[in-house]
Amino acid sequence: MAARSAPSCHLRLEWVYGYRGHQCRNNLYYTAAKEIVYFVAGVGVVYSPREHRQKFYRGHSDDIISLALHPERALVATGQVGKEPYICVWDSYTVQTVSVLKDVHTHGIACLAFDLDGQRLVSVGLDSKNAVCVWDWKRGKMLSMAPGHTDRIFDISWDLYQPNKLVSCGVKHIKFWSLCGNALTPKRGVFGKTGDLQTILCLACARDELTYSGALNGDIYVWKGINLIRTIQGAHTAGIFSMNACEEGFATGGRDGCIRLWDLTFKPITVIDLRETDQGYKGLSVRSVCWRGDHILVGTQDGEIFEIVVHERNKPFLIMQGHCEGELWALAVHPTKPLAVTGSDDRSVRIWSLVDHALIARCNMEEPVRCAAVNADGIHLALGMKDGSFTVLRVRDMTEVVHIKDRKEAIHELKYSPDGAYLAVGCNDSSVDVYGVAQRYKKLGECVGSLSFITHLDWSSDSRYLQTNDGNGKRLLYRMPGGKEVASKEEIKGVHWASWTCVSGLEVNGIWPKYSDINDINSVDGNYIGQVLVTADDYGIVKLFRYPCLRKGAKFKKYIGHSAHVTNVRWSHDYQWVISIGGADHSVFQWKFIPERKLKDALHIAPQESLADSNSDESDSDLSDVPELDSEIEQETQLTYRRQVYKEDLPQLKEQYKEKQKSGTSKRRERAPGNSIRLHFVHGYRGYDCRSNLFYTQIGEIVYHVAAVGVIYNRQQNTQRFYLGHDDDILCLALHPLKDYVATGQVGRDPSIHIWDTETIKPLSILKGYHQYGVCAVDFSADGKRLASVGIDDSHTVVLWDWKKGEKLSVARGSKDKIFVVKMNPYVPDKLITAGIKHMKFWRRAGGGLIGRKGYMGTLGKSDTMMCAVYGRTEDMAFSGTSTGDVCIWRDIFLVKTVKAHDGPVFSMHALEKGFVTGGKDGVVALWDDSFERCLKTYAIKRAALAPGSKGLLLEDNPSIRAISLGHGHILVGTKNGEILEVDKSGPITLLVQGHMEGEVWGLATHPYLPICATVSDDKTLRIWDLSPSHCMLAVRKLKKGGRCCCFSPDGKALAVGLNDGSFLMANADTLEDLVSFHHRKDVISDIRFSPGSGKYLAVASHDSFIDIYNVMSSKRVGICKGATSYITHVDWDIRGKLLQVNTGAKEQLFFEAPRGKKQTIPSGEAEKIGWASWTSVLGFCCEAIWPVIGEVTDVTASCLTSDKTVLATGDDLGFVKLFRYPAKGKFGKFKRYVAHSTHVTNVRWTYDDSMLVTLGGADMSLMVWTNEMEGYREKRPCDSEESDIDSEEDGGYDSDVTRENEISYTIRALSTNIRPMFGIKPHLQQKEPSTDERPPVSRAPPQPEKLQTNNVGKKKRPIEDLVLELVFGYRGRDCRNNVHYLNDGDDIIYHTASVGILHNVATGTQSFYQEHNDDILCLTVNQHPKFINIVATGQVGQDTTSTLSICP
Questions:
Q1: What share of the chain is helix, strand, coil (3-state, %, to 5)?
Q2: Of 698, 1261, 777, 776, which Cα lies nearest the Cα of 979?
Q3: Contact present, 1391 and 1384 (Cβ < 8 Å)
Q4: Above 50 in pLDDT, residue 1309?
Q5: What is the pLDDT of residue 1445?
Q6: What is the pLDDT of residues 1248-1297, one digit of tens each?
Q7: Mean pLDDT throughout 244-266?
């Protein structure tokens, strides 16, 4: 079992060797603290030359490729590559994230730049349009976005001397941008005759609208405005990659290896040729240059960083080196010294000192190097080459000992034997050669058992055996030195291996995921002493496992930093460090190993925050060493809340079905009934899968939710008020700190969060667009301005909102497992915690992102499931309740201690001014002091403690507590069984509200002459409810099986109940005691009905397609109705008790004679004339109109007719309750629709006097009581919606002008065909006229410049004269309104027509024009505020619609 838990030791990144010079530029700067900031792989590095120390920023999840320094030189912005790349703004002192900017770019972020005051940041993407985006980075908000160019952009900069101006350059272009409002507008630089059109690589802005840019040919182009005014030719002899502006002037660096310094007017000061210096070499190419005072930083293509002091320019100091070009695979450690050897495709071999963090030796080879090994005494270094040869060097002076080429394919692995006698060389041609070291590397043997290339080798401690891994993942063993394969497992049973670097084998089974055969782990190295194993994989992750690691799917700790493909990993000789190398990022990472014993003191090694968590105790087998999940929680984690059809899909579905149904809409349809219903009372509370969703409001009312309804319950008056803005299940509820507003989140394809007022019950804000499937947790900040929410998508996305503005502030992926709760820090509005399955995370807002750190449990506990969480009295104290009954006490992100609080999960926790209250599955409410050291008092929820005035009955003792809240001298408790209780602090308990427990509710019957009803459910209970003002449960009886139907006898004395096992019983309606029971069927009893009058017969319908008819008096079955092809859904008797009407699952309407059950054929017209004692049928001529257009997708599940036979109520699968006028003939009748249930209204029944309608929600387990309000009784309420699924002409309501305007389609004229057809061609153009295929599209966009411009010298052309708009006749009134205004005290009139804004002077009749629009203007308004006189806004038609603000003089 050891391998099934993550190791308790840790790795800390200590040093990174390398610098990213290839494919990047301008990525090296001095900070304000005179430290050097740059990046390599996925890590931002801050290097202090004085202290020779590195700090690391690890908030990225992939290669960083761009960097910008804030003008104050403390903050850094870095951009990465990836499918969903993001920008991090971070502090170079603390290396903590300040802001994350995301959700805009794709592929990667190529360039970044801050503006002059550092408030805004511009970024350029790597997408096909090279999008340019301007950010308010502190808020994480995008201000503006525009397509950059069709080809790559290499550099972008703000003009520091002109506000809101930017310049970008790239492949054969330079663009000058203006930012006006939120519109970015570019103008292309005009090269003219001054210089050739060519690729511009870098730029810098200067005073007087001057811009200097570095070109691919080594010239510097000087721009004034958008025009090229001069060139400085031969500034460099090759491309200029970097240009840096500072107080003294400008520095440029190019491919020619030279640094040139220029003064402020771009006159040359000096030149420094790095190739000619001591450290220089041929081919040196400068990628980045930074000039600060008398120091210059230079970054090169090959990964070096030079620092040059200006007055000693011939002696540059080399402060960082790394590998370059190709892949880096070779890694070996010295057996006795703290040295590491690396070799790369750049043909170099380098020896690094792990103590001094420096390169101490370098040797260039003839061929790319793929593997390395040092022999046991540290004298020889063997290198395997890509061409199939290997070379042995002396470590001392890097001189060659021997060079041997026996193979043609790459040598991927070689190792010396522990006794130093042999060298095993593994080749890509599947063979391993064994050489004798003492015999000057004479070949002694060959191992040929593999069928694929050799990947790893290990020697046994006695040098007698060799184990190999190959590309097929096979492990083979050989006797040494001959190379004979070992067939017997017994022979190698006791073999001890000198090293373990193989990825296949029993000891390392656990490094592989459980059900995977992928081959993505590149390297392994075992530390026998520390009993820990380190691995490197294709995803850029270094992992620590326990060793040995026997069972698949073991837990691990993971560390990020490499961008992709960590190719090799090794322990240092004394196990102090781990060295890892990145294939494509060319970097060498040195990690400090911190053993378990030191961890207890080393709080500073807390997991470093990052967007991709750097220290997760993750496992590929999710719950490997977590205690077994409690059954309730297990059940809850299975809930997905996914729907086949969401209410949002309805409009689209209706459109699809309308086409098919057009023929049926010609008949005039019945209008909707005059009656309305109003929701009066809801029995139920959602406790079975929700928590902490029950609160006292400001005035002492109780707010909670059930189904799609937010409920405000007044306990004094026993009345309810309802928020009906949701259209599907509400899953969570939070109360504003002032206790007057509530936030509720629902299920949906694009689920919404509603914030509403508990007094007016009106919505204040609705938030959508960032979650999928549903919102499972919400919480307000302490100041009430922000709201945090968690979705139920696969990533359980966490979103932070400014809810009043409806603006998303930050978003992050929460966890792959379910999150149960989100809690905002009451002291710091930017902090929050989330808790869930194996999850406790502490978040901090950073711009548009959230930085999460996992709770660090140390040795105090295992990664447990957290069900609830609250903050304590200080900002860094937090408490969480676990699934095992403990309360965890956290300081910052560290677990300080655990306290046993309940038997079973702690589901709810509430913070008080001085202490806490908790509730658990054990049904106990516990009061605690403010540090959870002492339990002050406990209350057990028992029937014996119920106060005499309680409304209803407690079903069982100690129900599981799901929500808990305090106020007004009481403790409010919500249970899993759907009960809301109020506990007085002195002990008595009052039951306020209750509903059915978990399981679908189908059975409903109303009493024949009393205001009561009966329900039966899958929760195995039969209940009687009072519908009069007391609104309580009168009686309950537990059943052996769940039930689906029930019915009162005509005299109201007996109650028949159909059960799910095919049996049914008759009970006394007052006492609920059994009178008689029968069990003739095996399938569910779906409907049960007494015959009218004396109730002589009882019809019992079942899912096995039969209806049995029983004589009630003799208790005998007297008839069976046969002939249905599917299960029975509804049964009704006629008034005489002689005929049965039956509906089936196959949508058949059948008739049977009673009591014998003979099938009868009755035409639908005749059936209408029969007097029916009840009508609950959903089929037939009389109720054809109740089926919606999308009847194929959703079923009408229930109906019920009023006793005066005028109004038919229906319930359907989408949760709608509808009222139709009866008879509902024709198709798609008009109706009144009400939303309160979430999905599947399973039953509807009118009371005996039609004064109330009772409805049941199947999955929401709620019983809703609606008041029937007769025609003309009251004004329309917002919950009424009178509509039909098809709107036709006779519905009326539109004036003809309004109708016409409503139908106008504002096609983008610039992109559509001409309004007036053009015929004929001018004679001189006839031959040249292109075909229709070749004709360019009509567009008002400025024409693209021709690639080749010809100058016809011979022809004299008339000069082109400019046209000036003088007068416009016309005004757009046909489809616009409120678009004429006076300006300047009535002197002028402002209006619009076509794409022109017109200012008409009344006195002179002259006009002036605003002509910046490029398509029809549709609206115009004038700012009335005295501060903004003559400001006009106009909006136009267009694909990318813009509105423009202009100032009218």
A1: 5, 45, 50
A2: 1261
A3: no
A4: no
A5: 65
A6: 998 999 999 888 889 999 998 877 655 444 444 445 444 433 334 445 55
A7: 91
What mean pLDDT, rounded, does the chain reach? 84
pLDDT of residue 630: 63
Under a CB-based contact definition with an 8 Å cutoff, are residues 154 and 169 in contact?
yes
Q: Which two tokens mark 676?
A: 């309305």
pLDDT tens-place string over residues 925-983: 999 988 888 888 888 888 888 887 777 788 888 899 999 998 878 899 999 988 899 88
Measured distance CA(139)–CA(137) in Å, rounded: 5
* pTM for the full predicted model: 0.75
Quick check: 1050 and 1008 in contact, CB under 8 A? yes
Question: Quick one: CA torsion of 299, 305, 307, 313, rounded to 10 degrees?
Answer: -70
Q: By the 8 A CB rule, do 486 and 478 touch?
A: yes
Residue carrying structure tokens 């320019």:
313
The backbone torsions φ and ψ at residue 1090, rounded to the nearest 5 degrees and listed phi first, read -80, 145
Q: How far apart are CA 363 and CA 393, in angstroms?
A: 10
Q: Sign (positive/negative) of CA torsion 97, 98, 101, 106? A: negative
Q: Please answer whether residues 870 and 848 qualify as being in contact, where contact means their C-beta atoms are separated by less than 8 angstroms.
A: no
Rounded Cα distance between 746 and 1237, Å, is 12
Residue range 414-423, pLDDT digits in tens? 999 999 899 9
Residue 1330 is classified by DSSP as: P
The span from the CA of 427 to the CA of 76, in Å, is 45
- Residue 528, exposed/middle/buried by CB under 10 A (0-12, 13-18, 19+)? middle
Q: Which own/partner pairs from 1422-1428 qualify as long-range (CB within 8 Å, at least 24 positions apart)?
A: 1422/1381, 1422/1383, 1422/1390
Look at residue 1049 in the predicted model and tell me its pLDDT: 93
Could you give the CA distance from residue 98 to residue 117 in angstroms, rounded to a whole number? Answer: 17
CA–CA separation, 237 vs 229, rounded Å?
A: 21
| Position 663 confidence tier, pLDDT thresholds 50, 70, 90 | very low
244: pLDDT strictly greater than 50: yes
Supply φ then ψ for residue 1427, to 5 degrees: -70, -25
Q: Where are the beta strands (DSSP E) in 968-1084?
A: 970-975, 980-984, 989-993, 1001-1006, 1012-1017, 1021-1026, 1033-1038, 1043-1048, 1054-1059, 1063-1068, 1074-1079
- Residue 670: what are its φ and ψ, rounded to 5°? -60, 145
Q: Tokens standing for 104?
A: 């805009």
* Cα 613 off chain centre by: 15
Query: Identity (one letter) of the amino acid at 474?
Result: K
Question: Which residues neighbour 167 within 8 Å (Cβ) at sequence distance 6 or greater?
Answer: 156, 157, 159, 174, 175, 176, 177, 203, 205, 211
Q: How far apart are CA 536 and CA 117, in angstroms?
A: 43
Kindly report, residue by residue over 1321-1346, the tens digit of the pLDDT: 444 444 443 333 333 343 333 444 44
Q: Which residue has the tokens 């902490």?
A: 692
- Residue 425 clears pLDDT 90, i.e. is over it: yes
Tokens 């290896």 correspond to 257
